[in-house]
Specification:
Layout lengths: L5 H7 L4 E7 L5 E7 H10 L1 E4 L21 E6 L5 E3 L2 E12 L11 H14 L3 E15 L7 E3 L19 H11 L4 E6 L5 E6 L2 E2 H21 L2 E4 L13 E8 L18 H12 L1 H8 L21 E3 L6 E3 L9 E3 L8 H18 L16 H4 L7 H10 L1 H7 L1 H20 L3 H8 L3
Parallel strand pairs: 1-6, 14-15
Antiparallel strand pairs: 1-2, 3-4, 4-6, 5-6, 7-8, 7-10, 7-11, 7-12, 7-13, 9-10, 13-16, 15-16
Helix pairs in contact: 3-5, 3-8, 4-5, 5-8, 6-8, 7-8, 7-10, 10-12, 11-12
């Protein structure tokens, strides 16, 4: 280890351990803590994990992996992502990619590796994808007497866009903002969102891999710091019947080889420009299949209903928050598309990779989007509203499996693992007796 290495600098700053993190297909941070003195060697060699973790559901069942004997993969840390934790300065985070043990290539199920490959495809066309993530979440208190053992931290109506003690009496959201800023996540604002005890931390846009990394770290930071306060932060799409849900909106644009925004051209009909028009058409072409990744849980579809500011049909509109894709009324360097169907539970790297692949298909095939939806897309007639989006996880999984092009680009290993895990989740849900069923039937039938 040389004195100029980033690891030596960490040691001099008092860091004693590096937490190597990687994303699974749920978007959850998995990893290991490594003593700083062992990290450099392991960073070169890779850190072994059982690869079945990528196919383990949220009830702790390894759905895929046994047929191979539960083999390992190796996570290789990306030293460019090293960050010292402001709330635990003797620990640094470092993100990694899952790779085959022999070093011959990426693991098929690694979302970060997939996104890196998609970004490289764009480079062949002279583009750098830029992404601005928007994530909402609920802050909850543990309460054994509450349904599910959780109650809302602030349970008052009409606290949207409020700040200070009225909407954050313990200063938790403000501490989250400080931490995200100090961690280098490029956070620039935070506020109470529309629903009771719902919050949002705004972060700047950047190139796609960095944006996905920061979204992943933002979710991990929020959940970790909430846990340190004895609370629960959830990005689950719709945790409460009497409240709307949490989205994962993505703002997308492309930077051309000349360094300018390739979406800024406004010469085509509807003011979209050639590149943005084709990208948009590709996203709409693959929208039904994309829903499996945009809304990857049973619960997510309870958010995608009329009057929810979440889309229900495959469409787009100018500055229209009822559409699947919103085209903000901004031009020049701020020209972009906003995909509004994403659920807070989605895996950032997987979601961004899939959307970029769909956009690339539109560019390469020179697809043309339909006319925009105008006004309330929920109440537009069928001609203008567009095709109805899948309304259940099962229908979305079917749509993904039926989109041969997208499945091929995502990779058979990843898609087959994702589908197996999610179909098993659906099977478990279909057998589970819910509170609604008891309330509806038990006293009467």
């Amino acid at each position: 280890m040389t004195d100029s290495s980033p690891i030596a600098a960490l040691q001099e700053g008092g860091v004693r351990a590096v937490r190597v993190l990687y994303t699974d297909l749920h978007g959850i941070a998995r990893g290991k803590d490594i003593p700083i003195g062992k990290f450099e060697h392991l960073a070169e060699e890779g850190i072994a994990f059982c690869s079945a973790v990528m196919a383990t559901d949220l009830r702790h069942t390894p759905v895929v992996g046994g047929e191979e004997g539960y083999v390992d993969f190796s996570v290789r840390p990306d030293l460019g992502t090293l960050r010292v934790l402001p709330w635990q300065p003797d620990v640094a985070w470092c993100l990694g990619d899952a790779r085959l043990l022999d070093g011959s290539g990426p693991a098929a199920t690694c979302p970060r590796g997939l996104l890196a490959r998609v970004v490289a495809r764009y480079a062949e066309h002279g583009f750098v994808p830029a992404v601005g993530p928007e994530l909402e979440f609920f802050l909850l208190e543990r309460d054994a007497a509450a349904p599910g053992g959780l109650r809302r931290y602030v349970d008052e109506l009409s606290r949207v866009y409020t700040v200070g003690a009225v909407s954050d009496p313990r200063g938790i959201a403000l501490e989250l903002l400080y931490a995200c800023d100090q961690l280098g996540l490029r956070a620039f604002a935070a506020n109470h969102e529309f629903m009771n005890s719902q919050y949002e931390i705004n972060v700047e846009h950047s190139d796609a891999l960095d944006a996905a990394d920061r979204a992943f770290m933002l979710k991990t930071t929020v959940k970790e710091l909430a846990a340190r306060q004895g609370m629960v932060a959830t990005f689950m799409g719709k945790p409460f019947n009497d409240q709307g849900g949490s989205g994962f909106h993505l703002h997308l644009s492309l930077v051309g080889s000349d360094g300018t925004n390739a979406f800024a051209d406004q010469n085509l009909p509807h003011g979209l420009g050639t590149v943005r028009s084709r990208f948009l058409a590709g996203v709409l072409e693959h929208a039904p299949a994309l829903m499996a990744l945009l809304a990857p849980t049973v619960n997510a579809y309870k958010r995608l209903v009329p009057d929810s500011l979440a889309p229900t049909h495959t469409n787009w509109g100018h500055d229209n928050r009822t559409a699947f894709v919103r085209v903000p009324n901004e031009s020049g360097s701020r020209s972009r598309l906003e995909v509004r169907a994403g659920d807070g539970s989605a895996c950032a790297h997987l979601l961004i990779a899939a959307l970029l692949l769909a956009g690339l298909d539109g560019i390469e095939r020179e697809l043309v989007p339909p006319d925009p939806v105008v006004g309330d897309a929920y109440r537009a007639d069928e001609t203008h509203a567009g095709t109805k989006l899948p309304s259940t996880l099962g229908a979305s999984l079917d749509a993904l499996e039926g989109d041969e092009w997208l499945c091929g680009e995502l990779g058979a290993g990843l898609v087959e693992t994702f589908l197996a895990m999610k179909r098993y989740e659906l099977e478990r849900f279909s057998r589970y007796v819910t509170d609604w069923e008891l309330d509806e039937y038990a006293r009467h039938l």
